[in-house]
Specification:
By secondary structure, the chain is α+β, with helices and mostly antiparallel strands. The chain has one domain (27-113): Beta Barrel (OB fold (Dihydrolipoamide Acetyltransferase, E2P)). It has two helices and five strands; from the N terminus they run αβββαββ. A five-stranded antiparallel sheet has the order 3-2-1-4-5, with helices on one face. A hairpin with a 5-residue loop joins strand 1 (29-43) and strand 2. The longest helix has 24 residues, at 2-25. It is elongated. It starts with a helix and ends in a 9-residue tail after the last strand. The mean pLDDT is 88.
């Protein structure tokens, strides 16, 4: 009986590790988006995550929500600096997320400040 219970618990642990590894190491898609950085915050009650939004349209109707992992301190610093600016972000989309990663499936890996196509800033 103990041996069977150990095999069942071991199997569940192995399945969880395989699922976590798949979600972490196998991206669903990769890409870039550009827009005005309208929100970037460190939020959460027990587990804090970095969450942000860019507006991809002039009316603000197209909002792209994203998450930045704590492993990306350079990206976090740049996003805090570029608040309110037009930015281009590179992201990895995962199949799903875990509560300790953040609210979205889109994880930012790189950010650059760009010139807005909507306004001519001289």
């Amino acid at each position: 009986m103990k041996k069977t219970l150990i095999f069942i618990i071991g199997g569940i642990v192995i399945l969880f590790v395989l699922f976590f590894s798949f979600v972490y190491f196998v991206p669903y898609s990769e890409g870039t988006r550009a827009g005005e950085l309208i929100k970037f915050s460190h939020k959460g009650v027990l587990i804090k995550t970095w969450e942000g939004q860019i507006s991809q349209g002039i009316s603000g109707a197209q909002i792209f929500d994203f998450t930045v992992l704590d492993q990306e301190p350079e990206v976090i610093e740049k996003l805090q600096e570029y608040q309110g600016s037009y930015v281009k972000i590179t992201y990895i989309e995962r199949f799903t997320t875990f509560f300790f990663w953040g609210d979205t499936k889109y994880f930012i890996t790189e950010v650059t400040q760009e010139n807005s196509p909507h306004f001519n800033r001289n």
